[in-house]
Amino acid sequence: QVQLVESGGGSVQAGGSLRLSCVVSGWAGSRYFLGWFRQAPGKEREGVAAIGMDGRIVYADSVKGRFTIAKDNAKNTLYLQMNSLMPEDSGIYYCAADQSEWATLWLLQHPGALTSWGQGTQVTVSS
């Protein structure tokens, strides 16, 4: 069973940056969808960025040009570099993994379909 542990959240002012990390363990196989999702109070969980099993990278429109997703296979770690943060970026950020064959963008848009989740890390952006 895959385990995911996020870190790197915190409180920043608008315009600031944060880098989130997600250490992944317990792999069964070598090909995984890996993604970042977030959930603000009173809102549904939404996809932020993902790397598909084929290496394709997709972003939510709201973060394009500001966030960058990357993974270090040697360290079994997924990253999310977040720049030019805005108050609406606040929320709990989760990383998720899955081995389904669904398209990367579809999985980013349907977090309910994913099977493995971390515990989340809080990001708070003040204006």
Radius of gyration, CA atoms, in whole angstroms: 14 Å
Q: pLDDT under 50 segments (min length 5)? A: none
Distance between the termini: 40 Å
Largest sheet: 7 strands, mixed
- Number of helices, counting only DSSP H or I runs of 4 residues or more: 1
> What sort of overall outline do the alpha carbons produce when their principal axes are compared?
globular
User: What are the secondary-structure elements, in order, as H or E?
Assistant: EEEEEEEEEHEE
Overall helicity:
under 10%
Overall SS class: mainly beta
Question: What's the number of extended β-strand segments?
Answer: 11
Overall residue-averaged pLDDT value: 94
In terms of DSSP E residues, the strand content is over 45%
Describe the structure.
The chain contains one helix and eleven strands, in the order βββββββββαββ. The longest helix has 6 residues, at 104-109. Strands 2, 4, 5, 6, 9, 10 and 11 form a seven-stranded mixed sheet that branches. 5% of the residues lie in helices and 48% in strands. A hairpin with a 5-residue loop joins β5 and β6 (57-59). The protein has 127 residues and is mainly beta.
